[in-house]
């Protein structure tokens, strides 16, 4: 069972997202919060597998809440709920180590897939969010693509394979099954990839994979 903490200051939005999550028998919303400070407190109490946080909330916004939860290690993963036009917030959340970014207005199946992916140790970026984040992180797309390709060029062939699947949002276990590797070996490859790419987390590595064009190969 994937235990989720859901935080959003809009009651109707929480109800809608909660209803979508309830359609998956393997996902349970164990706590709800209407502001970031309450989310941090509830994370300490329930230690959920996934903290699903709205970016804009009163008292403490989702980014600050995510930073506190990651710092205290009170949730297995943190995923942010976003809307179009929140590019600056998304980039800040990325810097704080968020594992996923999901559009509030996206396909319900995408929400479920994203929660499952981050709960399994993967990274998940809604495709429209990925495009906007990449565009926001660098005005000069060609320059960023060239830089990403240079960074990826330093990886071994196997590390590139792992990075490609990581960019697709797969967990270590899923990558292992796809490549015929034990999970411990995949974990070692991921650690090496993050070090070589100078990436803080899997989401940053996934963005490099997107920018380098690995997912189109």
Automatic annotation (TrEMBL):
Record bears the keyword Membrane: no
4-aspartylphosphate modification, residue list: 54
UniProt cross-references to SUPFAM superfamilies, sorted A to Z: C-terminal effector domain of the bipartite response regulators (SSF46894), CheY-like (SSF52172)
All copies of domain HTH luxR-type, residue ranges: 148-213
Keyword terms: DNA-binding, Phosphoprotein, Transcription, Transcription regulation
Any GO BP: phosphorelay signal transduction system
Stored SMART domains: HTH_LUXR, REC
Gene3D superfamilies found in the cross-reference section: 3.40.50.2300
Recorded GO MF terms: DNA binding
Signal peptide: none
Database matches in PROSITE patterns: HTH_LUXR_1 (PS00622), HTH_LUXR_2 (PS50043), RESPONSE_REGULATORY (PS50110)
InterPro entries cross-referenced by the UniProt entry: CheY-like_superfamily, NreC/VraR/RcsB-like_REC, Sig_transdc_resp-reg_C-effctor, Sig_transdc_resp-reg_receiver, Tscrpt_reg_LuxR_C, WalR-like
Response regulatory domain ranges (all copies): 3-119
CDD domains linked: LuxR_C_like (cd06170), REC_NarL-like (cd17535)
A Pfam family the protein falls into: Response_reg
This protein's name: DNA-binding response regulator
Lineage: Bacteria, Bacillati, Actinomycetota, Actinomycetes, Micromonosporales
